[in-house]
Design a protein that fits this description.
Layout (H helix, E strand, L loop, with lengths): L1 E6 L3 E7 L6 H9 L5 E7 L3 H14 L3 E7 L8 H13 L7 E6 L1 H13 L6 E5 L2 H7 L4 E6 L2 E8 L4 E5 L8 H18 L1 H8 L7 H21 L14 H10 L6 H18 L5 H13 L10 H8 L5 E2 L2 E9 L2 E8 L3 H9 L1
Parallel strand pairs: 2-9, 3-4, 3-5, 5-6, 6-9
Antiparallel strand pairs: 1-2, 7-8, 10-11, 11-12
Helix pairs in contact: 1-2, 3-4, 5-6, 5-8, 6-7, 6-8, 6-10, 9-10, 9-12, 10-11, 10-13, 12-13
The chain binds nicotinamide-adenine-dinucleotide, the ligand O=C(O)C(=O)C[C@@H](O)[C@H](O)[C@H](O)COP(=O)(O)O and zinc ion.
Catalytic activity: 7-phospho-2-dehydro-3-deoxy-D-arabino-heptonate = 3-dehydroquinate + phosphate
EC number: 4.2.3.4
Protein name: 3-dehydroquinate synthase
């Protein structure tokens, strides 16, 4: 088992290994302490039949009373409506301040559960049990929680760190190739912003189904996230680097009515943002070309069916915007990105350059 310790507003461990789910109760008991009695396992309709029985049995063996909240799988459920249903469920089941939530699933489950944990009774503990590669390499760590609004992605939320992240690599066995690619996109992003060696490793197109590859990718990506989050938990500086490809990625998700997944949208977003940066003279060919090559090698569809004007409208709600200025993440060398400000009035021109 591998262990990474994250220290932000809370210190917690990320445990990674095979066979952890059936032993989750003991690890969760250790992280939460003896006081916690009831746990609500939050999971979606695809993950529930696969993994919730094993988790709940293990929680019960460790003396917890477990209840389960299941919502319809998919990005559309990352909404105020599901949040409201979940909060009402917690109240009906009489969870108290000495109880906790466990997010069993991908990034949608983790973001939704984390936000419920941050707001229920003004804050109770929660644990992340990621079951997608994307959640394992990115969303389960760092404490960004939230839901989407009609106006766009993640527009309501809170910073609320988990008490433990427990990643059982065996759960990756049931992921489709597209879901593995979603995770690969965020790992490539991590490499692009801060880890040239990780990028070189991914360039060799390692087998995403191989548990050793999964362990390596999540270990490196989480290590990058650990450093960034420890420096800037609240996303006012360096943490914004983790948003490479997301200004356009989130816009593409929104324009597609969420039919394009987060990971696939971020892949297209990284290409558009890199190309635009190159056209603006802020990046270099020897930095942007290898990134596109890696994404093509994995078979990501990289064409964007939306116009610069549609994408600009959608991107105006980006959280890196402050008034009439937007901070962009620009690749400046392989494994290195920098933040650069752009007046919002030039955003469409920037996006047009990236689409050409
Ligand atoms: N908080 C953060 O830092 C952060 C970081 C990155 C992404 N995100 C968010 O995460 C979300 C995307 O996460 P995601 O790609 O995991 O989406 P997701 O949670 O919707 O999971 C994708 C699909 O995989 C299914 N699934 C999950 N685990 C499975 C398994 N082991 N076997 C088979 N199917 C399984 C789910 O039911 C779902 O249909 C987006 O909303 C994105 O904004 C948040
Ligand atoms: O943890 C972060 O910080 C990130 O930006 C990670 C991103 O991969 C993730 O998609 C995040 O949810 C985007 O955050 P947002 O602030 O743009 O909503
Ligand atoms: Zn992301």
């Amino acid at each position: 088992m591998e262990k990474i310790t994250i220290t932000a507003s809370k210190t917690y461990e990320v445990l990674t290994g095979s066979g952890l789910l059936p032993r989750a109760g003991a690890y969760i008991r250790q992280a939460l302490g003896e006081k916690v009695r009831k746990i609500c396992v939050v999971t979606d309709s695809n993950v529930a039949p696969l993994y919730s029985d094993a988790l709940i049995s293990s929680l019960e063996e460790s003396g917890f009373v477990a209840v389960k909240f299941v919502f319809a799988a998919g990005e559309a459920s990352k909404s105020l409506r599901t949040l409201s249903d979940l909060l009402e469920f917690l109240a009906q089941r009489q969870l108290t301040r000495s109880d906790a939530l466990v997010a069993l699933g991908g990034g949608v489950t983790g973001d939704l559960t984390g936000f419920a944990a941050a707001s229920y009774l003004r804050g109770i503990p929660f644990v992340q049990v990621p079951t997608t590669l994307l959640a394992a390499v990115d969303s389960s760590v760092g404490g960004k929680t939230g839901v989407n609004l009609e106006a766009g992605k993640n527009l309501a939320g809170a910073f609320w760190q988990p008490s433990l992240v427990l990643f059982d690599t065996d759960t990756m066995a049931t992921l489709s190739q597209d879901l593995l690619l979603d995770g690969a996109a965020e790992a490539i992003k991590a490499g692009a912003i801060a880890d040239k060696e990780l990028l070189s490793y991914i360039r060799e197109k390692p087998d995403l189904k191989d548990p050793a590859v999964i362990t390596h990718l999540s270990g490196r990506a989480i290590e990058i996230k650990r450093r960034v989050v420890q420096e800037d938990e609240r996303d006012i500086g360096a943490r914004q680097l983790l948003n490479f490809g997301h200004t356009l990625g989130h816009a593409i998700e929104k324009c597609s009515g969420f039919s394009v997944s987060h990971g696939h949208a971020v892949a297209i977003g990284m290409v558009i943002e890199s190309r635009a940066a190159l056209q603006f003279g802020w990046s270099r060919e020897d930095c942007t070309a290898p990134l596109s090559e890696i994404l093509k090698k994995f078979g990501f569809p990289l064409d964007c069916p939306y116009s610069a004007s549609q994408l600009t409208q959608a991107a105006l709600s980006d959280k890196k915007r402050q008034g009439d200025r937007l901070t962009l993440v620009i690749p400046v060398a392989q494994g290195d990105c920098q933040l650069k400000e752009l007046p919002v009035s030039r955003l469409e021109e920037f996006i047009k350059a990236g689409l050409s």
